[in-house]
Amino acid sequence: MKFNTLATFFALTSGSLAAPAGEALEKRNPTGSFSLIAYGVASSYIKIFYSDGLAYAGDSSLWTYGSVTTDVTFTIGNTELPTTATTSGVTLDADTLFYIQPTADAITEVGFTGNGISTPSAATTESFLFYGTYLMWEESNGNLSDSFRLKETNVSGVYQMYWDQSNLYPSGYLLPTVKSLS
Ligand SMILES: *[C@@H]1O[C@H](CO)[C@@H](O)[C@H](O)[C@H]1NC(C)=O
Ligand SMILES: *[C@@H]1O[C@H](CO)[C@@H](O)[C@H](O)[C@H]1NC(C)=O
Description:
The chain is mainly beta and 182 residues long. It has one helix and 15 strands, in the order αβββββββββββββββ. β9 and β10 form a beta hairpin.
């Protein structure tokens, strides 16, 4: 296993975002349901939420543009992240899965399958794992990467989520760390 990307990741997340002393970082999937949270772009963590098949972070109640918007929780099984709506009155398809679109030299939207919204052909729902509490994606060569990005929307405090496969770091995209929160 190569840790090039992981090394970059730890360099970026040193300081206040480093793992608490004594917390061993190892492959360890959470059990039961959990939220996904993003650190590093706001003064506190912000939660990942669902809106019309795409992933956002922030206070979902502020995002009024989607026709179906909901807070979500996740489980992990077979390297996939089944997703459940938690906002009252909203139900997602039972097979709703979190996806990224690992496409060389591209920054792409992160989203969710199902719910009558067509899934992009580059989407992958597999090969996710947690390293400590950090969400990572394992490439076929064994590299672990966490190339999540957040881009501010036109609503203050709400960000859309992206994946930057080649670590292009285009301007306007912030670098969060994405973690589980039980
Ligand atoms: C992924 O692994 C390959 C081959 O082991 C290595 O050359 C490359 O630098 C790694 N890529 C990243 C982004 O770490
Ligand atoms: C804000 O963004 C949403 C989603 O992209 C869009 O539908 C809406 O028209 C935008 N509103 C303004 C005021 O630009």
